[in-house]
Amino acid sequence: MTNSIKISPSILSADFSKLGSEVISLERAGADYIHIDVMDGHFVPNLTIGPEVIKKLRPLTEKTFDVHLMISPVDKFIKDYAKAGADIITFHPEATEDTAKTIELIKKENKKVGISLKPKSKIELIEKHLHNIDLVLIMSVEPGFGGQKFMPEVLIKIKELKEIQKTQNLNFDIEIDGGINFDNSKDAIEAGANILVSGTTIFKSNNGDIKKNIEL
After folding, report:
1. Does pTM surpass 0.85?
2. pLDDT (tens digit, 9 = 90+) per residue, 41-54?
3. Is residue 155 exposed (0-12), middle (13-18) or buried (19+ Cβ within 10 Å)?
4. Would you please indicate which residues are annotated as catalytic (active-site) residues?
5. What's the rounded Cα separation, in Å, for the pair 15 and 33?
6. Best exposed site among 28, 98, 200, 207 by fewest CB in 10 Å?
């Protein structure tokens, strides 16, 4: 974990007709990570990027591929996304029958492990695993679609995580994703998040000036 704030732009908001050049633009603009949302039309009501697309994007940048799997059952796909070039693999506890086993499957592929909590998912779902993972992704919208409105009530969850981190002397990143913009990002950082995922704001604000939007 680091105290510096990292920006992980979500390519869900990129122009899919030129995804490769969008990824290169993010690297040039100073993005810390590239956030890749994977949806299966089953766990969430939408379909997005498969491992083949990630494999094609991987040679274009050395940036960390921050891959959020919104797929169920998740275990059988972990190897495919690891081989495709994911650096961090994040899953939902509701998408597996055995959270500890899924964590071990990701570690076996020598990837960092993230667990994501939907707005209504409780910290208790993952609390006993916090010592064994690298990242917690707090969703500030219901997963499934880009462009949704930020849910400020999830900030309490981030504060609780920070408290657990402190009292148990744990070391994991806290990432937030969903409706993050220039205003509410400050609240998220104040609550304790150190990785901000943003799609619409990064790609669409200031006439699409990605560099400016990352730096703001």
Report:
1. yes
2. 999 988 999 999 99
3. buried
4. 37, 177
5. 18
6. 207
